[in-house]
């Protein structure tokens, strides 16, 4: 992996995110790096995770496109290793890579639920261990890998100060309609993560909405059903926030971060129909 000219730091991590689900052309060095990472994953965790102290663990399965479905996990895993550079060198974007992929990982609803519930613990453990291993192995070659610890420290926090600021912004600008029951909130205005923090840890304003205490309690940690009426209220709320003459500073920073990650550029003149459309989408 160290032979490829792709240094891992905060900027390049954001660059990697920007390629996902996009049709932008991928640098060859990045494609080669992804192939090496893929091989390491198949040779290490996927090889050993099924057997823990001679006990077979079946949290998920593997399915290769070249093997019969009835073949066992190990057969599918070994077939997955047959993917070589010549098979994907013509891939120019993320969609091409997915098309050429010959190995799929699948798991059931219960496994997804368990992984979701443990996601913070798993994230911190894996990222910290990964950072430590990289530093121990490559620190002498590339001191820039020390920035991995900074990346680990940047795991998202609930950030009660930002939530407090959003609440004040909504109160000061009269945004007091409950997102769920659509009733005016006389007092006790609360903020709810539309997509629960346990599933989608984002404190940005498009995931924080004014709600009454009753609806907040009922909704709890569940993912809401997005009906046409709810979708319309979400859009109206975001549109109102973005059309205000003086956009709150924390909302402004949310939008700037979105543009840097999604569009790889800084937004100019956010309060205009085109920019609002892009943010709403």
Describe the structure.
The structure is a single chain. This protein is mainly alpha-helical and 281 residues long. The chain folds into 3 domains: 10-107, no CATH class; 118-155; 160-280, no CATH class. The protein is 51% helix and 7% strand. It contains 14 helices and 6 strands. The strands form 3 sheets. A two-stranded antiparallel sheet has the order 1-2. A hairpin with a 2-residue loop joins β1 (51-52) and β2. The radius of gyration is 23 Å and the shape is elongated. Mean pLDDT is 76; it is low at 1-12.
In short:
The protein has 281 residues and is mainly α. The chain has helices at 10-19, 28-43, 45-48, 73-80, 85-88, 94-100, 109-117, 119-138, 147-153, 160-172, 213-219, 228-243, 249-262, 273-280; strands spanning 51-52, 55-56, 61-64, 103-106, 190-193, 208-211.
Major β-sheet strand ordering: 1-2
Order of helices and strands: HHHEEEHHHEHHHHEEHHHH
Largest sheet: 2 strands, antiparallel
User: What structural class do helix, strand and pairing data support?
Assistant: mainly alpha
Q: Strand fraction band?
A: 5-15%
The termini sit apart by 36 Å
Number of β-strand runs:
6
What is the CA-atom radius of gyration, in angstroms?
23 Å
The poorly predicted ranges are: 1-12
Q: Summarize model confidence as the mean pLDDT.
A: 76
> In the residues, how many domains can be counted?
3
Shape descriptor reads elongated
What proportion of the residues is helical, as a percent range? 40-55%
């Amino acid at each position: 992996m160290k032979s490829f000219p792709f240094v891992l730091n905060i900027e390049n991590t954001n660059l990697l995110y920007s390629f996902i689900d996009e049709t932008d052309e991928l640098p060859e060095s990045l494609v080669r790096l992804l192939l090496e990472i893929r091989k390491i994953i198949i040779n290490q965790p996927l090889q050993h995770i099924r057997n823990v102290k001679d006990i077979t663990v079946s949290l998920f399965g593997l399915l290769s496109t070249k093997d019969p479905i009835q073949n066992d996990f190990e057969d599918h895993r070994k077939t997955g290793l047959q993917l070589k550079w010549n098979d994907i060198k013509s891939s120019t974007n993320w969609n091409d890579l997915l098309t050429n992929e010959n190995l799929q990982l699948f798991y059931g609803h219960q496994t997804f639920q368990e992984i979701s519930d443990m996601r913070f613990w798993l994230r911190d453990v894996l990222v910290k261990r990964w950072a430590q291993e990289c530093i121990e192995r490559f620190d002498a070659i590339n001191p820039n890998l020390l920035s991995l610890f900074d990346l680990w420290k940047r795991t998202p926090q609930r950030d009660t100060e930002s939530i407090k600021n959003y609440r004040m912004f909504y109160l000061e600008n009269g945004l007091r309609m409950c997102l769920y029951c659509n009733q005016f909130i006389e007092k006790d205005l609360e903020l709810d993560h539309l997509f629960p923090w346990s599933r989608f840890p984002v404190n940005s304003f498009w995931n924080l909405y004014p709600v009454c205490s009753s609806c907040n309690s009922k909704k709890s940690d569940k993912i809401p059903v997005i009906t046409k009426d709810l979708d319309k209220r979400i859009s109206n709320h975001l549109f109102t926030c973005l059309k205000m003459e003086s956009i709150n500073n924390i909302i402004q920073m949310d939008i700037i971060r979105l543009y840097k990650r999604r569009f790889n550029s800084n937004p100019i003149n956010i309060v205009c129909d085109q920019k609002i459309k892009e943010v709403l989408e």
